[in-house]
Each structure stands twice: as structure tokens, then as C-alpha cells.
Amino acid sequence: MDDRERALDTAHRCAAEFLDTLDDRPVWPRASLEEMLTAFGGPLPEAGSDPAEVVDEIARLADPGLVAIPGGRFFGFVIGGTHPAALAADWLVSAWDQNSGSSRLTPTTVAMERIAGRWMLELFCLPSSASVGFVTGGQLANFTCLAAARGAVLARVGWDLAERGLRTAPRIRVVVGADRHGSIDRAARFLGFGRAELTVVESDDQGRMRPDALQHTLDQGRGPLIVCLQAGEVHTGAFDDFAALLPIAHAHGAWVHVDGAFGLWAAASESLRPLTAGMADADSWATDAHKTLNVPYDCGMAIVRDPADSIAAFRTGGDYLIYSGLDPWDVTPELSRRARGVPAWAVMRSLGRSGIETLLDRLHANATAMARGLAAIDGVEIVNDVDYTQVMFRLRDDDATAALGQAILAEGTAAVTGAEWRGRATLRCSMSSWATTGDDVDRTIAAITRLVLT
Ligand SMILES: *Cc1c(COP(=O)(O)O)cnc(C)c1O
């Protein structure tokens, strides 16, 4: 075997060994950052090493600091696992090393992305003519969509943003919900909108924007307007009432953006689709493949109704580049880029429409079962309506809730993460992984029951 084959063989063996430990290893890392800095530290070696030995060394040193995200009992934040088809396809992406910005240079991977995008539009019940830009995640998808929005609302009042810039442009009102994801503020900041420039609209007890409050806010002003709505609030999983909100926003001439990092996928299930009613009338949508679709990190999608608006924001110059219509670099901020759409294509090809629907229904069923099991523990209260994939729970006392969160991580059966909700400490349990079984839910409930009752 040559160096390359031995290195790949070693990677294959080490990956399989790690994946085989998932069912039994403590979910939370056993080592701290400091310990991992020591493990991988020391000066840059003067002499080189054999590639296979390097891979073996990585696997050996890395293990204590790895978190069992691809397993069935990681419920922290909103983080999917990795479907086998996506994992294996992602290895091919690395082996192929295609710089997937241009369809002329890399027709295979650009075609796979374009088809993957088309399949997603079908799953989300969105217009088939929309552009789908594959970016690193929900954060960059929000940024990419809002960049298209910013240029488009200025173009409507005769301002060419690409030519004249933002500093002396007409003011844009950016309207957001009180319970928006932090990545909206961050995207706005990257785009030149400060925190004080965002107009915040009140939300209800589940974090949904209130239509009467939106109406009132929009009536206060005029001019270029962007309204950011949400499919899937990160704590409660709640969906904005698109059917009520979108007509109000559009009557005021707004560009409506939907952050649906994990919520857009509800449209792929017949039973969950009603949560998204009215959502398809928006102008842009951000979502993730590395959460609900269970591809490995990283992959998000920026979907824009009129591709001309993404092109206006992103098409690049450079006479050495080869142009051929709608290329990835026309609709994303990147130039050189990884073929992120390939693992997404692979999962959709492997599961099919019915498999994706089953995946969504199982995530929801797992959330319901988790909520039921936790609610049965004396002293545990479920905080949210479990309409989708998120379960929030707490004990009567905030300190006890925080202590329980620490105890769950230390015990190791499962991982949940904490958050403050309406001024109270809560623990969040997100069902995002294809790998979670009913047994994983039962084992988690049993572990939490023991911790609460002792
Ligand atoms: C996760 C999430 C994001 C950010 O997505 P990344 O993939 O982490 O960049 C944005 N919005 C919501 C609602 C999310 O859940």
C-alpha cells in the first residue's frame, strides 16, 4: 500500500472505532480544552511523520475531547447527527477536492447541488424557480438572504447598492421578532445594521411574533423595509403565524425573510406541514442541512425567491473566471468552496421523500415521548407546547434546574443544554438526530428521573 492508501485505511478504521463507541461512551466530553491543548500542543515539529501515523495519532489524542454528537442521545442546542449516506458521500467530497464555485470547472458537484436544491424546494413546498445557495450554515444563510434583501429593497426605491454603497443610501427599516435567533442580529451587523437600528416586535408566550404588534409597528413608518420571521424558535420550536403576518408585511411593501434553520423541514411532513402554512409567500428562507437533514458539518442553504436578487448581491467580477449562467458563486458570498450539496444529495437519495417524512415524524414523536416521560417525574415541568422537535423543562427552583443540567452532563447518558426563558432557568432538549431511537429516549428519561429523585 502507498502512503495515501494507508492513511485512508487508518482513517476508515479510526472512524469506525469512534462510531462504534457512540452507544456507550459518555455523551459530554471527558477532557477540557486545556487538556486537549496539551494533548495536541508542543512546538511545530521540525521533522515530518508518516501520514497514516498522523491520522492514528489524531484519533488517539482526540478521543477524550470528543462530544458524541453523531450518537442518539445528544440533545443540546439544535444539532443533527450524521446519516451514513451523508458521511460516506462527504468522504468522497474530500477525495474529489472539487472547487465547486463554477459549473464549467466542476460540473458534477455543481449539478448535484443544483438537483439537491431543487429537491429541497419540493420538500419545503417553495417555488421551484428560487435560487438555492449552499453555504456553511444557518448563520451564513441568514446573512446571504438578508444581503439579497438589502439590495432588493433599495433597488425598489431606485438605489443601486453595488454602485453607490450603503452609507448614504435611503434608510432601511429592519423589523425582527423579540425571540429571533441571535444569528439574525449578527447577520444584520455584518450587513451594516446596528443593534439600535433593528425594530423589535413583541412575541407571545411561545416566541411567535404577534400580528397586531407587527401591524402597529409597520404603520409607524414607510420606505424600504425588511421583516424577519421565524420557522422554529430555537427554545420552544414555535412557528410564526405566516398566514397572518405575511399579508401585513407585504401590504407595507416589505421583503419578508424566514429563518427556518430547522423549522423549514416541517414542510416535508404531511402531519407537521400545517405549522408552515403561508410560509411559501415569503421572499427568502434560510435553513440548515447539518441539523434536520443530518449531513455532517457544515451545510446550510440560502433560498431566494427571485434569483436575480441573489445575483445582484453576489455575482463577482474577475476576467479569469469562467461564467455560465447561475453558478454557486453567483448566489453565495464564497468563491472557492467545498461541494456541500453532495452529502445533502446523498441523504435525500438514500431516504427518499417518504424516508425524510418518516425522519421528521420520528423527531416529533421522540419529542412528544420525551416530554411525556419528563412530565411524569415529580417536580419536573414542561415549559413549551411540544408541537415540533423542541422540549423545554425545568424544576421549581432555578438553581436546582441549573444543577440538574450539570448533573445530566456529568452522569453521561445524555446531553441537554440550558437556557434562560422568560427570566427563568430551563433545560432544552432538541430532537434533531436521525440516530435517536425510542430506547434512547427511555434511557434518557430513566437517567434524568434518577438524578431528580436522588
Ligand atoms: C441553528 C440556528 C441558526 C444558526 O445556524 P448555524 O447552522 O448554527 O449557523 C439560525 N437560526 C436558528 C433558528 C437556528 O436554530
Write a structural description.
The chain has helices spanning 3-21, 33-40, 51-62, 84-96, 107-124, 138-155, 161-164, 182-190, 211-219, 242-251, 307-314, 328-331, 341-375, 398-411, 438-453; strands at 131-135, 173-177, 198-201, 225-230, 255-259, 284-288, 300-304, 381-382, 390-394, 417-421, 424-430. The protein has 454 residues and is α/β, with parallel strands linked by helices. It has two domains: 3-68; 88-346, 3-Layer(aba) Sandwich (Aspartate Aminotransferase, domain 2). The protein has a seven-stranded mixed sheet, with helices on both faces. It has a four-stranded antiparallel sheet with strand order 8-9-11-10. Helix 5 (107-124) runs parallel beside helix 13 (341-375), helix 9 (211-219) packs parallel to helix 10 and helix 13 (341-375) crosses helix 15 (438-453). It starts with a helix and ends with a helix. The mean pLDDT is 96. The structure holds pyridoxal-5'-phosphate.
